[in-house]
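Internal ticket #5521
Category: modeling
Description: The requester needs a full-assembly model to guide mutagenesis choices. All entity lines are attached below as received. Residue total reported by intake: 740.
Assigned to: D.W.
Attached entities:
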Amino acid sequence: MRKNVRSDKKINMVKFQRSLFRIIRQMKKEFLLLLTDKFNMLLAIVVPPLVIFLFGFMMNSIPEGIHPVDCVVISYDSNVYIDEGTFNESLRDDFTLPYVNAANKSEYLNLIHFYNATEEIYAMESARMMLLASDIKVIISLPVGFSEFITLGLPGLIDCIPDASDIKTIQDNLNAVFDSVKTFVNDNNLTPQFQLTGYEEFTIPEGYSFRFNYNITLTLSFIVFGVSMVLTILVVVQEKPVARLLLTPAKRSEILISKYLTYTLILIIQVILLIISTLVCRLYLAGSILDLFIALFTIGFTGLSMGIFISTQSKTKTEANQLFFAVFIVILLLSGIFIPIDAMPIYLQVIAYILPLSHGDPMIRGIVTKGKSVFGFDFFALLILSIILVLISFIIFKRRKYEV
Amino acid sequence: MVESSTEIMVDVNNLNVIFDKNHIIHDVSFKVKKGEIIGLFGISGAGKTTIIRVLTCQIEKKNWSGNVTVTNFSPDKKQNHPLILHNIGYVPQLELLNLYYELSPLANVEVFSSTYGLDTKEAKKIAQELFKILDIPSDTWNKRVKHMSGGEKKRLSMAIGLIHKPSVLFLDEPTTGVDASKRYSILSYLKKLNQKLDTTMFIITHDLEAALICDKTAILREGRMLEFDSPQNLINSLPSNGLVARFEINDLNEAKITRISEFSPVKKVLRVGNEVVEILMESFEENLPKLIQYMIERGVTVNSMSRDSASFRRFFQIRIQEEEEREKLKKNIGEA
């Protein structure tokens, strides 16, 4: 009995060794095939760091300093004010000019024109024409009762109409207006209703580009996910001799494992190169490099699993390419780049949270800007997604019919 | 010819293959001894590839029945598949299914040999031996396969199939897509490999010339095995051991062919050209002068005449024709 158990163990060990030998040799083949494909090699090793360098150069070469936002101020202020004690009537617009002065003083705003709407009835129309002609980026409107509210100790309201045709600059324009409000509050010894100051822990230290830091997170997720996916979408479908390999003692699982391992090694090299290139481009990393490595690897592995999944279930190269395009577009649209995921209809939110890039960017952002640990919801979501994709790929590949 | 041993490498008894109620193979039985070259002949749809797929573990057991063993293992048990696959080699019809065109011949050897557990050194040694037999030039061994000529790729594909020294090698249409001049050289390479390595070979082909190197030939039609014997024995089974008289006849037409067929010793008249017929008859030597006399008397003008031995091609043609006629007759009786 014992002898049998021992010999069974021995047989299993021999089987395992043979299987390992075959996997290693198949990996060698995968590497050789990759080496012969110059375009794929370029895509795997050269393109990712090159994109980062290009991105870094682009972000870091934008001249630092202030680019004032062109604006006009329209005042509807000047209410008739009746003193409750004396019943004297007076016009209240004593905070209009101080605000205009503050807007003039702010280095973030370039006041092109001031309209007093009580005298120029077409002030708003004129300002809108300027906005339409791109002569200004924002209209600042002081509403009726602006001075009265402040005098009474109530919050002074300011209307802002930014040029919404360029979504990227809206926030910058509003920030510039906010600076003028700060100046106005300080110069007139007013108590602001809200104190808006940057959180210290998100601050990028002197010498680092905040633009690069804030934008690189999305770029990193995209590159590592996209390249891994592109590299693997054809690995199974374009390998014609697979059917013949299946007429040898090689097992289907060994063939697929060797592909996963090969492209995982490529992914590791890719992630290391990406991290080095981002650090060279002066990334301020609030979290740890190990966390960033694990995060990028996880995103890349999800891309790899998705690529191999597409490859195993496609019958032709064209089918794989078309499927890749369709999947990638959906992933991109629902990744939260264009519309925040929380703002989507609930059924789209469900789909978005299944897709990998919806987790990639928040995970990297958390590590880079907030110093968070990688092991959060996004990491585990990606991990589960990868495992599911790997399992499905194995099942499809195992059931796929090959004929020589 | 290598003297065949008695060791049975492939044993097929009452093989039936059914796919979705379509009966593809009907009661096929044959035995193949070690070192033999077997040719499976038949027109498209005869079932050649299906039989090979059963033998190479490509068809699930639920689709076939019968007793089949390959190198003493039955493909009906899944646990036997690795053992069978270890003992057989396969050379597909298209080289691109057997070779990585972007890799060198030696790298290809390494890929396939490793699946059998051979280490690189050993595999390279075997490969070089095979490359020499197959005249694959040494300057191509380390270049990419895609730069090799069609013939070299074909030979490399054979070498890959033999890299682990299999007991049985299956070749699917080895001469298809090869120029007529090179077909014979491919066949002679196969014979050479068979003689040097004593490998049992199974050739599936449309190319009836392949029978030249076969020890045994199987003729299949619509999933049924019509014949299984050596080509010579099959030819000898024809009237007068396959002796044929070839006549060139002026204005040959169906009426003249029918007239010739009416001469009682004539067993078969085959039209093999515009004005050429081949005639098989009983007691050839004795009846040939009588036949000529008969033809002259009935106004059939003979321009020239020669005598020959029937080829396997002719036997195949006759056998398939007979089968078709038999089926037609059956159908007519059925309709009546």
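Resolution: model delivered.
Comment from assignee: Chain A is about 60% helix and 10% strand.
Ticket closed.
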